[in-house]
Design goal:
Elements (H helix, E strand, L loop, with lengths): L5 E7 L4 E7 L5 E5 L4 E3 L4 E3 L1 H13 L2 E6 L11 H8 L7 E5 L2 H11 L15 E3 L4 E4 L2 E7 L8 E5 L2 E3 L21 H12 L6 E3 L14 E3 H7 L9 H12 L8 H8 L25
Parallel strand pairs: 3-6, 6-7, 7-8, 12-13
Antiparallel strand pairs: 1-2, 2-3, 4-5, 9-10, 10-11, 11-12, 13-14
Length: 294
């Protein structure tokens, strides 16, 4: 008999991001998906104020975290994966940090774009696991399968456990559509085909998204279903053709500005949530490449 997880979702208002805690009701083992650090770009202050809400929930419920899972290297928020790993580690337990195997391509791209030091490794070694398509991991008695869902980024993966799938930025809530495909290594064709893999799941499958962008007076949505996406997603319904989706996605992406935290986020997230090493003055810096047009 397939067991289904308990899921508690936490909204990060500043980046419209959802962090999900997946729990096995039988063993109280858990995983965290897409955790977020707080960053004030103006002051450079990085904190774990929002992450502590999740940490407090874990404490009050007695959950033991086995995995901290990223659906991809996000370009709109700093990952709190390293903070959670450090904060939750005990003498007997250290949760692993996992991401899709495509992170290697993302690391290579942004090492070049950011001109990172030669010793920055582009082999996913900053993570405990880089998951390939179809890999299986366990959360207590729950079995979780990795589904490769690239398109938004080359490293995109979704995590299927019981009747729930965690899709990152592959799809948003139906009213918000789908993720952009104009980052390095992205592909609208690839995203369409990844979404078809998700749409092949049973309609009743609970789908947990990483972002929602509600309008005025609306509440952010963390969860929908495969069936609801197929019926009403504004970018890609169950009967949307590949050429229709690609044309829509390409046209829309040309109008989108770069994410406000693009360069801040990638420098941290390709390091599994670790900040760059402090320099000789004990201060940590993030690089900002300039496009000079003078």
């Amino acid at each position: 008999m397939t067991m289904n997880p308990l899921v508690r979702s936490f909204h990060h208002l500043g980046t419209s991001t959802w962090t999900h805690v997946i729990a096995d009701p039988a063993t109280r083992r858990a995983a965290i998906v897409d955790p977020v650090l707080d960053l004030d770009p103006a002051s450079g202050r990085v904190s774990a104020d929002s992450a502590r809400r999740v940490f407090e929930y874990l404490g009050t419920t007695g959950l033991v975290v086995d995995w901290i899972l990223e659906t991809h290297a996000h370009a709109d928020h700093l990952s709190a994966a390293a903070w959670f790993q450090r904060t939750l580690a005990t003498s007997a337990q250290r949760p692993g940090i996992g991401i899709g195997a495509g992170i290697v391509e993302v690391q290579r791209t942004f090492k070049r774009l950011l001109n990172l030091d030669a010793d920055f490794a582009t082999d996913a070694s900053q993570f405990d696991r880089a998951f390939a398509e179809g890999e299986v991991l366990r959360i207590g008695e729950l079995e979780m399968r990795v589904i490769a869902t690239p398109g938004h980024t080359p490293d995109g993966v979704s995590y299927l456990v019981g009747d729930a799938v965690f899709v990152g930025d592959t799809l948003f809530a139906p009213r918000a559509g789908s993720a952009r495909c104009d980052f390095p290594g992205a592909s609208a064709v690839m995203l369409y085909r990844s979404i078809q893999r998700l749409y092949a799941l049973p309609d009743a499958t609970r789908m947990f998204v990483c972002h929602d962008y509600p309008g005025a007076g609306e509440e952010p949505v963390a969860q929908t279903t495969v069936g609801e996406q197929k019926r009403s997603n504004i970018h890609i319904r169950g009967d949307t053709r590949e050429d229709e989706f690609v044309a829509l996605r390409v046209a829309r992406d040309t109008t989108l500005p770069a994410p406000a935290l693009l360069w801040h986020s990638l420098q941290v997230n390709i390091r599994a949530g670790h900040l760059p090493t402090a320099e000789s003055n004990a201060v940590t810096y993030l690089k900002l490449p300039l496009q000079v047009d003078l």
